[in-house]
Amino acid sequence: MIPKHTAIIMDGNGRWAEQKGMSRIFGHQNGVAAVKKIVEAANKFNIKYLTLFTFSIENWDRPQSEVDTLMSLLVQTLKEEFEDIFRNNIKLNAIGELDTLPDNVRDELYSIIHSTKNNSGMTLTLALSYGGKQEIFKAVKEISDKVKNDIISLDNFDDSLINDHLYTKDLPDVDLLIRTSGEQRISNFLLWQVSYAELFFSDVFWPDFDENHFDKAIKNYKKRERRFGKTSDQIKN
């Protein structure tokens, strides 16, 4: 079975570039090309939801020149890829503390989100200025405020209530989480949503990650037995 929702931590741009004696910016530029390939592959594989960890909330602490370049690359990519996104019936979505993005990034992002809102194909979600702990904190605070103001009751407190207050409220939980570059950690990405995800770690740096590597991850996923706390016999029966 194809994973309904695949999320990817796109790691290794900088190290890929350094191995080639190039700047980190060169790595990010080639990382953008890899994004295009993987979005096309995900659409081809009939994945319904694809979420990409594009810029973490911790990434704001990187050198300002690198941050500025990443933001410029994002705007440029959104402008250049809009026609393909729309033509392929892809619905663009974004999660994170979007208010912290530069105005030009946010304007371009919201414009494409609005233009593709009625598309019925794959939902492509960009996690921007995103942190999993921060997302959960925000949800808990909003729920606490509503309980305090008698908008909701603690009697109705369950998983679905938390889900409804997350950035990903319109997305299903993650089935497959991929991380490139050989690192094996989640890095504050979709902490609530990956609780039962299958994890796949690739040694390939993100700029070199292509359709064949993606296909390998999908095939590996298909071999997994997803038990969700049950036994193998329960799943089989």
Question: What descriptors fit this protein?
Answer:
alpha/beta; 6-stranded parallel beta sheet; globular
Coarse morphology: globular
* Biggest beta sheet summary: 6 strands, parallel
Q: Which structural class is indicated by helix and strand composition?
A: alpha/beta
Helix fraction bin: 40-55%
| Count of discrete alpha- or pi-helical segments spanning 4 or more residues | 8
- Provide mean pLDDT, rounded: 94
Beta-strand portion reads: 5-15%
Strand order of the largest sheet: 3-4-2-1-5-6
Radius of gyration: 19 Å
Give a description of the structure.
This protein is an alpha/beta fold. Helices cover 44% and strands 14% of the residues. It contains eight helices and six strands, in the order βααβαβαβααββαα. A six-stranded parallel beta sheet has the order 3-4-2-1-5-6, sandwiched between helices. Helix 1 (13-19) crosses helix 2 (24-44), helix 2 runs parallel beside helix 3 (64-87) and helix 3 runs parallel beside helix 4 (103-115). The mean pLDDT is 94.
Topology of this structure?
Elements: E1 5-9, H1 13-19, H2 24-44, E2 49-56, H3 64-87, E3 91-95, H4 103-115, E4 123-130, H5 132-148, H6 159-163, E5 176-179, E6 198-201, H7 211-223, H8 232-236
Parallel strand pairs: 1-2, 1-5, 2-4, 3-4, 5-6
Helix pairs in contact: 1-2, 2-3, 3-4
